[in-house]
Design brief:
about 400 residues; mainly alpha; Na+/H+ antiporter like fold
Length: about 400
């Protein structure tokens, strides 16, 4: 890369990282997830007020993809399979209902409106996500992580993440092929399941061997470099076997989460994620045309109507999952509301669809609006649901 290219890239990264942190700080102070601030930072840069910023630079797209891989790797590191198993069939039922119902509602709406099958699949898939990070943060801030409802929600959210990764892998396969084939979807899904199962079976042996190597080496940074290399290797292996790289990264995180180096890896990974992950969300924000949300312009009203319908279905599709719980004395509304926020996973679905040309810019804008709305409304709704629980005497 020539010196001018390096200067341009450094200037772009300066704009991205500063906007991510400034708007992220604003979101924190407003009591909202940082991801929304990063998204707003991207929207701000998308206005073109920063003259030197070049969102079309392909290097930024590559860095954003690395950010997604690190994000899914970190999600896997923070996913505890033992807790997942303890949650049992209750969390599994909530997760399955919370994935199936939103997908069917989204697919049905798009089919009813006359959109193609591929667009219907992408929109339905985008509605299936649940952001376990956002839900956990809200419950932690409320001091409710120890409640039975919170345990069910978090267990279901982790299962939802795994199901979401499998669905995302299938959807990414559809995007790559350029056509919707249910045989292709089933094949991609099956490959993702087989890869995940095989990796979790063989993974502990590999991870224990890697930990032994790390213990013997003295060079600085060997632990985090080994962990990230393992994530990249698993991502490449997943890609070679016909599934998505993010499945490999997520699986690598789950495998390493079962070692005694989990906390050390998580701690050393955070600074790297703090650099790369915001690049992805800011770049997502730059693609949002804020003018499309202006209801005064007649051409925008159809998209706004679609966005409103998606928000309604996104809320309804997750709230009903609370009624999959059969236990007595549990607040089903709190469980369902805890599954509402879509967060970063919904944005990844939308980004893949837009990049592949499977969904149009107005559909992308509607999905981003849905993600932002569900993330904004979840904290106050969850708080009200738990206040109701306390009034019931618990």
């Amino acid at each position: 890369m020539h010196e001018a290219g390096v200067v341009g890239l450094l200037a772009d990264l300066l704009a991205i990282l500063l906007s991510a942190k400034i708007f992220g700080e604003m979101a924190e102070r407003w009591g909202q997830p940082v991801v929304l601030g990063e998204l707003l930072g991207g929207i701000f840069l998308g206005f073109g007020l920063i003259g030197f910023f070049r969102p079309e630079d392909p290097v930024l797209a590559i860095l954003a993809e690395i950010g997604v891989i690190l994000l899914l790797f970190e999600t896997g590191i923070n996913s505890d399979l033992s807790q997942l198993l303890k949650a049992g069939p209750v969390s599994l039922a909530v997760a399955c209902v919370g994935v199936a119902v939103p997908f069917l509602l989204g697919y049905g709406l798009m089919a009813f409106l006359g959109y193609g099958r591929m667009q219907a699949v992408f929109i339905g898939a985008a509605l299936t996500a649940t952001s376990v990070g956002i839900t956990a943060r809200v419950l932690s801030d409320m001091g409710k992580l120890g409640s039975p409802e919170a345990q069910i929600v978090l267990g279901a959210a982790v299962i939802d993440d795994i199901l979401g990764i499998i669905i995302l892998s299938a959807v990414q396969g559809v995007a790559s092929s350029g056509s919707l084939s249910w045989v292709s979807v089933m094949r991609t899904t099956l490959m993702a399941v087989i890869f995940l199962a095989a990796a979790l079976w063989i993974g502990p042996r590999i991870s224990s061997y890697l930990v032994k190597i790390v213990h013997r080496m003295r060079v600085r940074g060997i632990l985090i470099v080994t962990a990230v290399c393992f994530a990249f290797a698993m991502a490449l292996l997943a890609q070679a076997l016909g599934t998505a790289m993010i499945v490999g990264a997520f699986t690598a995180g789950i495998i390493l989460a079962r070692t005694d180096k989990r906390e050390d890896i998580d701690t050393t990974l955070k600074p790297i994620s703090d650099i790369f992950v915001p690049i992805f969300f800011v770049m997502v924000g730059t693609k949002v045309q804020l003018g499309a949300y202006n209801p005064i312009i007649p051409a925008n009203r159809a998209m706004l109507g679609l966005a409103a319908a998606l928000i309604l279905l996104a809320i309804l599709g997750k709230v009903v999952s609370g009624w999959a719980v059969r236990g007595r004395g549990l607040n089903r509304l709190a469980i369902g509301v805890g599954m509402i926020p879509r967060g970063e996973v919904g944005l990844i679905f939308a980004q893949i669809g837009l990049a592949a040309g499977a969904i149009t810019a107005p559909l992308y804008t509607a999905v981003v609006g849905m993600v932002a709305a569900t993330t904004f409304i979840s904290p106050p709704l969850l708080k009200k649901a738990f206040v109701r629980l306390e009034r019931q005497g618990r």
